[in-house]
């Protein structure tokens, strides 16, 4: 596809002026899991001129541009709508009394959390992720928490938060000013994903070339890229966070029981677990090619993505195996990159397709639906890197894991210097078993988190009598 044609599809997002991402095409269709303030809840159309969005007469939390859009959305919205209406005062939304509760000393964070847990308890498995976002980012004044819709207006700059009057906008200006830029980028990212889907990069997201001599990673991701100013660059930083974070962890802890330096490895196999929401975009070879560019001795890289959701929701099969193309320099050096997908770890381990990992990457070790542990630490020579948007999620998983496995923490939980730079709208709700890794809340003062914001690494502790330990990584 010609670069100009590809970029024209995203011209409204500033693609034609950015030197960072040079080519981009839509990789997925629109993602119906985002809220774009000031737009239709179904089609994301924004009113023009004298047009006005119409508020749902049931929950009073969402708006539509027409009755047709409301009817299209009803099949999924009706369960939440009826439950929210039953818990609200007649003709009002569920947060109509929030400002009075705050005047009495209650915190907004706690109000949202209790409301989310209430509706999740009523709806059970019918409580959707988008419902959690609705409750965490409702149409209320960002200063006084008044939810009277007729007086609410969006901040004209970020289009992310509402104010009921000019006086309250001015009163909140000092606090909001520090967040407005990030909120604006967050809304632009959500709007891009909601209306066009995830982009696919056809060239390296930032200037990069292979090195002949190994150099350690810099202090953080912003030493490699500029602070994102458009959604394409912001989303790209999320993807780059994965290989960069793996490399960061392996530079700290090494490979195998003898902790051999990662830059000496000639072969590297990565198993990625419990990351279905992110994994379907990782067929993009450019993201993983960057490991070749930083590790001059690396000749073969294999990425195995393991998650049932890849099959149930995204339509993959066991036969999905991809030999990825690389840049001319990597091709001349004889480097090979392979990406494959698997549905079940235990079945995969007993198949002839199985390739032993050098490192395992995961967002969590528990099934969010059943609460059962579905990732067991591997043999002691294989490190497991865990990343999440919130520290408490990792702490909870480590506590759960320590009850079933003898583990040794090789890299303590810490802020990930190579986290993504896309502000991600967070929502305040928990499952009946643990906080959902994709639906967490970091700071009550903000409404966004950053992908892979925290990181740690562990290995199974060596026990007397443990056999069949491979002492060194794949070289």
Automatic annotation (TrEMBL):
InterPro entries per UniProt: Mito_gene_expr_regulator, Mss51-like_C, Znf_MYND
UniProt-recorded Gene Ontology molecular function terms: zinc ion binding
Keyword Zinc: yes
Key words of the record: Metal-binding, Zinc, Zinc-finger
PROSITE patterns linked: ZF_MYND_1, ZF_MYND_2
Domain MYND-type residues, every copy: 40-81
Gene3D superfamilies cross-referenced by the UniProt entry: 6.10.140.2220
Pfam family name, one: MSS51_C
UniProt key word Zinc-finger: yes
Protein name (Swiss-Prot/TrEMBL): MYND-type domain-containing protein
Species classification: Eukaryota, Metazoa, Ecdysozoa, Arthropoda, Crustacea
């Amino acid at each position: 596809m010609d670069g100009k044609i590809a970029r024209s599809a995203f011209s409204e997002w500033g693609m034609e002026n950015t030197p960072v991402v040079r080519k981009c095409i839509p990789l997925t269709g629109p993602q119906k899991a985002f809220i774009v303030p000031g737009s239709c809840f179904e089609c994301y159309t924004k009113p023009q001129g004298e047009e006005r969005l119409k508020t749902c007469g049931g929950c009073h939390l969402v708006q539509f541009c027409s009755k047709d859009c409301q009817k299209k959305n009803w099949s999924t919205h009706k369960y939440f709508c009826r439950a929210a209406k039953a818990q609200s005062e007649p003709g009002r939304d569920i947060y109509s009394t929030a400002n009075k509760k705050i005047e009495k000393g209650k915190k907004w964070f706690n109000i949202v959390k209790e409301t989310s847990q209430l509706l999740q308890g009523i709806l059970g498995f019918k409580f959707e992720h988008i419902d959690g976002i609705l409750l965490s980012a409702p149409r209320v004044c960002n200063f006084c928490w008044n939810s009277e819709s007729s007086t609410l207006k969006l901040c004209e700059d970020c289009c992310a938060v509402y104010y009921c009057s000019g006086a309250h906008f001015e009163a909140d200006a000092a606090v909001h000013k520090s967040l407005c830029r990030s909120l604006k980028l967050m809304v632009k990212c959500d709007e891009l994903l909601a209306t066009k889907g995830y982009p696919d990069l056809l060239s390296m997201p930032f200037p990069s070339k292979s090195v002949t001599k190994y150099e350690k990673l810099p202090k953080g991701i912003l030493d490699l890229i500029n602070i994102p100013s458009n959604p394409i660059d912001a989303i790209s930083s999320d993807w780059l966070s994965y290989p960069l974070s793996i490399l960061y962890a392996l530079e700290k802890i090494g490979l195998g029981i003898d902790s051999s330096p990662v830059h000496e490895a000639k072969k590297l196999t990565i198993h990625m677990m419990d990351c279905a929401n992110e994994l379907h975009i990782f067929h993009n070879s450019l993201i993983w090619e960057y490991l070749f560019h930083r590790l001059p001795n690396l000749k073969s890289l294999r990425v195995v993505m393991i998650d049932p959701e890849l099959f149930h929701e995204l339509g993959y099969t066991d036969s999905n195996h991809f030999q990825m193309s690389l840049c001319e320099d990597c091709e001349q050096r004889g480097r090979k990159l392979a990406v494959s997908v698997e549905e079940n770890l235990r079945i995969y381990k007993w198949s002839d397709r199985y390739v032993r990992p050098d490192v395992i990457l995961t967002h969590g070790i528990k099934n969010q639906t059943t609460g059962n542990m579905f990732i067991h630490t591997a043999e002691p020579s294989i490190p497991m890197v865990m990343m999440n948007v919130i520290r408490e999620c990792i702490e909870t998983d480590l506590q759960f894991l320590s009850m079933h496995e003898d583990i040794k923490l090789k890299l303590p939980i810490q802020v990930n210097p190579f986290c993504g730079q896309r502000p991600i709208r967070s929502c305040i709700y928990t499952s009946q078993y643990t906080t959902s890794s994709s639906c967490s809340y970091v700071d009550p003062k903000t409404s966004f988190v950053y992908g892979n914001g925290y990181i740690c690494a562990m290995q199974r502790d060596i026990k007397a009598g443990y056999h069949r330990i491979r002492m060194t990584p794949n070289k």
